[in-house]
């Protein structure tokens, strides 16, 4: 495609291990320009030429892929759509490894620089969403982005595109945005229209409801990880591997192979398994209660990750209150907010948001678009809101107030 664009990609796969027999079963490419405007959205199911793996996660039905094209059928179309663009994904390591493996299998590899110069919105969250977890849901909640059709390629790719646009709004002068786009455009490798266009095949229906079980809920709320990119990429694989609370013997071996593929030895992987379990336990205790169902799931995780069984007894002990988790404070006046304090708005208010933000700035505060641990106050049209922003603010102990407080106290 001509011009300077980001290609935001998401894949749904039959499993987690592109080095083995797992394949891509669905792909979406959302094309977005530097201004954050989506200019194209394309999706298709792919016949993986094998069983669909854990359908409880991606929820693709077998009958839907029977007449879907193979990856080889789509290779030229994908080259044309991706050529000269900046590859973007949430957990880029996962999607890029699958793309590399699929292109290589059909004998039409993409340039190594294309994958190497991609951008990962999961890793970028450490810069723009301090305190957020790695899941796409958690990052979207920080901005109040509605993640629709989760675990479908087009749903996740669209949410990731919106997330990237919010990052660019927070940091419009960052030279990397334009630098990456120019570099990618200069490296375009496929200019001509594909000789034959293959009609995309879409799902017969989308299931929008979440699986909603314990581990999926915890994975969406896990705290920010301060380790290396390699370790976080492995944690993101664990999130997916444990989502259905089952890891086969084959998958267990493949987890260790995946660890080796991204630069971890067996000892490091097992150390990360224990750290991951500790994060699950801490998140499970965050509401002050560890239920019998949660204990049963943690016991399963211990077995799945090859950890010592006695860890469950340690997990049952209530944690000591953390000093960095402050209780929610009810603000009494604007004197409680320091000059320059960050204030976030959410919901439809009685005046345009731009006008309110201008007044906040004139009063010495800093209007901000995302919930991070540095935010001092969230002003909500509905202070009892269950929006992603409000939920994230409460998790961080940030006061949530109504519009009345804004006019009667903060800007009075």
UniProtKB/TrEMBL annotation:
GO terms for molecular function: DNA-directed DNA polymerase activity. Keywords: Exonuclease, Hydrolase, Nuclease, Nucleotidyltransferase, Transferase. It comes from the Bacteria. Its EC number is 2.7.7.7. It holds the Pfam family BRCT. Signal peptide: none annotated. SMART domains: EXOIII (SM00479). It is an enzyme of class 2 (transferase). Residues 340-412 form the BRCT domain. Transmembrane segments: none annotated. SUPFAM superfamilies: BRCT domain (SSF52113), Ribonuclease H-like (SSF53098), TerB-like (SSF158682). CDD domains: DEDDh (cd06127). This is DNA polymerase III subunit epsilon. It comes from Glutamicibacter arilaitensis (strain DSM 16368 / CIP 108037 / IAM 15318 / JCM 13566 / NCIMB 14258 / Re117) (Arthrobacter arilaitensis).
């Amino acid at each position: 495609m001509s011009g300077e664009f980001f290609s935001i990609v998401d894949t749904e796969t039959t499993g987690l291990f592109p080095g083995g027999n797992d394949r891509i079963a669905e792909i979406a490419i959302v094309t977005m320009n530097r201004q954050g405007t989506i200019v194209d959205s394309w999706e298709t199911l792919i016949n993986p030429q094998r069983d669909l793996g854990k359908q409880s996660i991606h929820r693709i039905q077998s009958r839907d892929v029977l007449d879907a094209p193979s990856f080889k059928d789509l290779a030229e179309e994908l080259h044309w759509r991706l050529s000269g663009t900046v590859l973007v994904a949430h957990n880029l390591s996962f999607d890029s490894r699958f793309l590399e493996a699929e292109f290589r299998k059909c004998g039409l590899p993409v340039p190594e620089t294309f994958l190497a110069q991609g951008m990962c919105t999961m890793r970028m969250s450490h810069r723009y969403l301090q305190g957020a977890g790695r899941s796409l849901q958690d990052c979207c909640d920080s901005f109040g982005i509605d993640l629709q059709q989760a675990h479908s390629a087009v749903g996740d790719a669209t949410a990731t595109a919106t997330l990237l646009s919010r990052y660019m709004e927070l940091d419009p002068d960052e030279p990397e945005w334009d630098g990456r786009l120019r570099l990618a455009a200069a490296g375009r490798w496929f200019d001509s229209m594909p000789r034959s266009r293959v009609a995309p095949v879409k799902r017969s229906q989308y299931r929008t409801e979440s699986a909603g079980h314990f581990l999926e809920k915890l994975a969406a709320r896990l705290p920010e990880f301060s380790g290396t990119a390699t370790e976080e990429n492995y944690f993101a694989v664990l999130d997916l591997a444990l989502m259905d609370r089952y890891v086969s013997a084959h998958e267990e071996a493949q987890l260790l192979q995946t660890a080796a593929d991204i630069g971890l030895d067996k000892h490091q992987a097992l150390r990360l398994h224990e750290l991951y379990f500790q994060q699950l336990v801490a998140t499970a205790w965050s509401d002050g209660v560890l239920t019998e169902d949660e204990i049963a799931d943690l016991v399963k995780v211990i077995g799945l990750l090859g950890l010592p069984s006695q860890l469950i007894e340690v997990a049952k002990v209530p944690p000591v209150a953390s000093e960095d988790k402050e209780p929610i404070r009810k603000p009494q006046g604007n004197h409680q907010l320091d000059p320059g304090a960050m204030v976030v708005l959410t919901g439809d208010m009685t005046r345009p948001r731009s006008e309110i933000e201008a007044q906040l700035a004139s009063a010495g505060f800093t209007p901000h678009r995302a919930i991070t641990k540095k935010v001092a106050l969230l002003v909500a049209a509905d202070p009892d809101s269950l929006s992603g922003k409000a939920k994230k603010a409460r998790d961080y102990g940030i006061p949530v107030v109504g519009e009345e407080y804004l006019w009667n106290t903060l800007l009075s």
